[in-house]
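can u do me a favor
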């Protein structure tokens, strides 16, 4: 699912040649992560080299979008525009089914109901033509 936000007030991510495929895929509702051709390990965040073996030019693969909450915190105060309107919100580290961990908000779930190891599924908020922001919801 991809939701378009007409009034996204948070800072937009800085994109470059390395990260553009990730953000563009997210804008179309797809979660890409990198995989090393040499050692076959997945990695996240985007890098020019494999974080496990150092080989260059990891390829992009579409992730399942499924994972579990590895750890999280509930934010009760944030005065910054775009964040203040959402408190309380859940900021989590999600361990993807493929192995890498990524940070994202857990949305659509009461913050008191979020638990470590809770199964989650990616969803996206499209904030511009070329950028989508991955978020996670409870998996059914």
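np, heres the sequence
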């Amino acid at each position: 699912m991809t939701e378009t936000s007409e009034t996204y007030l948070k800072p937009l991510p800085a994109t470059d040649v390395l990260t553009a495929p990730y953000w563009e895929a997210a804008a179309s509702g797809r979660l890409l992560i990198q995989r090393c051709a040499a050692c076959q390990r997945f990695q996240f965040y985007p890098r020019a080299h494999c974080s496990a073996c150092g080989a260059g030019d990891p390829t992009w693969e579409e992730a399942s979008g499924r994972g579990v909450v590895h750890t999280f915190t509930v934010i009760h105060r944030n005065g910054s525009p775009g964040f203040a309107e959402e408190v309380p919100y859940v900021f989590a580290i999600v361990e993807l089914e493929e192995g890498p961990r990524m940070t994202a908000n857990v949305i659509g779930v009461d913050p008191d109901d979020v638990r470590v190891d809770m199964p989650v599924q990616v969803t996206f908020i499209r904030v511009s033509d070329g950028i989508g922001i991955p978020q996670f919801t409870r998996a059914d």
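The beta strands are 2-4, 32-35, 42-43, 59-62, 66-75, 89-96, 101-106, 119-128, 131-138. hope that helps!!
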